[in-house]
Amino acid sequence: MKKGRGIAALLLIVAFALAGCAGSPMQHLSLSATHIQKDHSLIQQGAGNYAAVYFIRPDTERYMGAADNRLTVELNKELLINLVKSEYTVVHLKPGEVDVTIKSLTNAGPFREFKKMQRTKRYKFEAGATYFLSIEPVDGEFRGVFFLPHMIDLASAKEKSRFMRAVGPARKKPISQIGGS
Q1: Segment holding 4, helix H or strand E
Q2: What is the DSSP code string of 65-100?
Q3: Residue 86: beta bridge partners?
Q4: Binned average pLDDT, 10 residues per bin, the chain of 181 residues
Q5: What is the rounded (10 degree) CA torsion for 88, 32, 100, 42?
Q6: How far apart are CA 129 and CA 90, in angstroms?
Q7: Do the beta carbons of residue 66 and residue 107 sit within 8 Å?
């Protein structure tokens, strides 16, 4: 009888330890993961003519597996930021044409294996202008989920960002405080 209780107690301790390990990544993911690479070659340092570009990552309507993890935004094949769901930030970029690449992880194929995804779109940013790029998921069904940046107007950006966290430089200039409708 004592031996059975000892084994049961040991199994209970192991179960609690495993539950603690399983919960740790979720706690980490709930924290802001946004970090802007300040040494990026396209970031306009100091005063001057720049394009203000807001990168918006809305929450998804449903659980999307690995695609819910943070995604990477690259400009001209150079890491700019990592974004988690329900966050947005702003960067001041040098004017010109820029390839915006969104990299993410997804579950794909008949065996739901992890797969790296990436999509690129080219934009032209002009000095003195403000742009809003909403990073939207596209469900490719068995091929997996990928993300595309879409240019949206100020009114749409305000609506999308109503319940989102402004992070990084966007805390000083949130979308809700930008003039116009």
Answers
A1: helix 2-30
A2: GGGGS-EEEEETTEEEEEE-TTEEEEEEE-SEEEEE
A3: none
A4: 69 65 36 65 80 91 69 94 92 95 85 86 96 90 84 96 93 89 50
A5: 90
A6: 13
A7: yes
